[in-house]
Amino acid sequence: MTVRDHMMIAHSLRGEAFGPAQRLHGATYVVDATFRRAELDPDGIVVDIGRAGEELRAVLAEFNYRNLDDEPSLASVNTTTEVLARLIADRLAERARAGALGDAARRIDGLVVTLHESPVASASYERPL
Amino acid sequence: MTVRDHMMIAHSLRGEAFGPAQRLHGATYVVDATFRRAELDPDGIVVDIGRAGEELRAVLAEFNYRNLDDEPSLASVNTTTEVLARLIADRLAERARAGALGDAARRIDGLVVTLHESPVASASYERPL
Amino acid sequence: MTVRDHMMIAHSLRGEAFGPAQRLHGATYVVDATFRRAELDPDGIVVDIGRAGEELRAVLAEFNYRNLDDEPSLASVNTTTEVLARLIADRLAERARAGALGDAARRIDGLVVTLHESPVASASYERPL
Amino acid sequence: MTVRDHMMIAHSLRGEAFGPAQRLHGATYVVDATFRRAELDPDGIVVDIGRAGEELRAVLAEFNYRNLDDEPSLASVNTTTEVLARLIADRLAERARAGALGDAARRIDGLVVTLHESPVASASYERPL
Amino acid sequence: MTVRDHMMIAHSLRGEAFGPAQRLHGATYVVDATFRRAELDPDGIVVDIGRAGEELRAVLAEFNYRNLDDEPSLASVNTTTEVLARLIADRLAERARAGALGDAARRIDGLVVTLHESPVASASYERPL
Amino acid sequence: MTVRDHMMIAHSLRGEAFGPAQRLHGATYVVDATFRRAELDPDGIVVDIGRAGEELRAVLAEFNYRNLDDEPSLASVNTTTEVLARLIADRLAERARAGALGDAARRIDGLVVTLHESPVASASYERPL
């Protein structure tokens, strides 16, 4: 099951490989979060879609309308699309394990987060739960 | 190889978790059916794309323009997006095994069906053939 | 300026021309609301995008997760995609004239509402404000 | 005839109405530029599509991978989606009038620029040439 | 009201301006046909959506899976995206006037045909009916 | 990490199963190339996105604006969507192994190429690197 939301952020990337993206610029990230499990729960779902959407929104709210270069929690990381996909996946996993998606969600066994940065580029991160 | 079609149905969901979706409402489901195999056939295909599209259309025709709450074959199931994805995958698998996709299709080893219920939510079901 | 949202409804259509759509079925309508004006306001906007999105959501909330055949306010209309586009445009226009979009919005001179019922069909309604 | 490209920028918006968008953030703008004319030229085109794409790319290059708050040419404007659409349309119009799109392009009579800032919001600016 | 379909064709373009597109190549054209009228008919529609889709399909069938360079009816034209949009609009208009869309369709006053040749380029033709 | 580009080609398919696609026709192929690896490199990336896009473009340039039936390198193959996906994946893999994507790319362990031939059909090929 996949839910989609988006966030609008500013950031700059560190490293010569990034060329002009070393300058402060920004992105609208369209974010897909996919929850996987082997069998559906008794209601016939992977996870409550409403709750999944709310948790994704809550995770993105920490970044939305911000300059990631100024976020203390991101000081040590290069906020590439790949790194942000991993970070969002990790935060969703923490919330799921803490029960935010309900008891049924404890049977989720995998999580994939995809960030689309433009119509021609995206990055995904896949992890177990 | 993936073919896409869609269907327009009414239904209601059973269970408090579904909130307002417990009321009779509806959805346009955009349906992707993916057929997988290890090696291409001698013609260089996974499966005849025309036949695959026709079989998907035939499976969806049983639901299209209907109220799923009134379908006897669905009486015992909660027609969530996840359950419908599994159901459509199972019906395509039956048809493929019965030869509807041609002899070449007997080498298909997996099937994924994805239902997009809105621009922000979808569900997939993956199974062997 | 255009904002997008969606709603999931059940309905049936009256008239032989509608063929199988005379049966109770449903749709996910992706709804675009476009606000037009000759000149931008002093902030450089057509209308507050946040407010526009909230008003569109409020209008759609009256239909979302419902069977339109049971809505008393729709008893006399055939809820085709075209009719729903006009109805939503009219309700947005009422709200705009009542001040829901702020003072700046009083300079809006036109409104277009488009409903996408599937990947292959949509309808638009355009009106002055 | 319409060509599409995109740019990734940082900026902040001035005015209480913008709420959290007053903070430095960013956007991927997907940009459509539409050129209109009454009759096609002798080659059967509105404008050379290759040249139109190059001119759009050249206009966006002045903003791409930049913080618009630091651009001297934008110091006096609030870089809303609407204002950027107008600015890009005006720059394309200047280039077209200066002959950058070729002689045939002198028969273009209108220009529309649309900026999509997210899957749910966009703004268009239409002007004569 | 807009219906969408697509066609897959080969062709080459005549004229130095077309650069590499002077070679024989091809395109998948995604085609939108929009029918406009001032007021809805008594059923609450612009035109029967099923019929509109069938007529569009019939018009595209004359080109689909063909090399346009070999079509006698196209011998005198440069089959640019713009020219094909006009041609398809003209053929739909003829059919509508001949009654193919039903009596209600006689009240249609305008027609727009858009051909998307790639994710970054499209052309539209608008005409009265 | 996924990059997207497209190409416009003419071709015909050999084999009765292809029906009308045995005639010379064409397609716009929207091509996604996905690069996979277990861990990100020290810059926080899978592969330099700029280089990945350039390599994909270079591979597609050999086919773009051509009639594949006339390409000597394709004389022995049936250029189905599936076969083209495999061919493009193999060429990208060769380039990656030859160092075209930089040293970091040597840690890429998988590659997926997807070709979308129309809004309703696509094919993917997945291989290790």
Describe the protein in words.
Six copies of one chain form a homohexamer. The first copy, chain A, is of the alpha+beta class and 129 residues long. In chain A, helix 1 packs across helix 2. The radius of gyration of chain A is 15 Å and the shape is elongated. The two termini of chain A are 14 Å apart. In chain A, strand 4 and strand 5 form a beta hairpin. Chain A has a five-stranded mixed β-sheet, with helices on one face. Helix content of chain A is 23%, strand content 32%. Chains in contact: A-B, A-D, A-F, B-C, B-F, C-D, C-E, D-E, E-F. Strand 1 of chain D pairs antiparallel with strand 5 of chain E.
Shape of chain A: elongated
Low-confidence stretches of chain A: none
Overall mean confidence score, pLDDT of chain A? 96
Number of H- or I-type helical stretches of chain A: 2
- Oligomerization state: homohexamer
Short summary:
The first copy, chain A, contains two helices and five strands. Chain A is an alpha+beta fold. In chain A, helix 1 crosses helix 2.
Give structural attributes.
homohexamer; 129 residues; alpha+beta; 5-stranded mixed sheet; 5 strands; 32% strand; elongated
Secondary structure layout plus pairing:
6 copies of one chain form a homohexamer.
Chain A: E1 2-11, E2 25-36, H1 49-61, E3 66-67, H2 81-97, E4 110-118, E5 121-128
Helix pairs in contact in A: 1-2
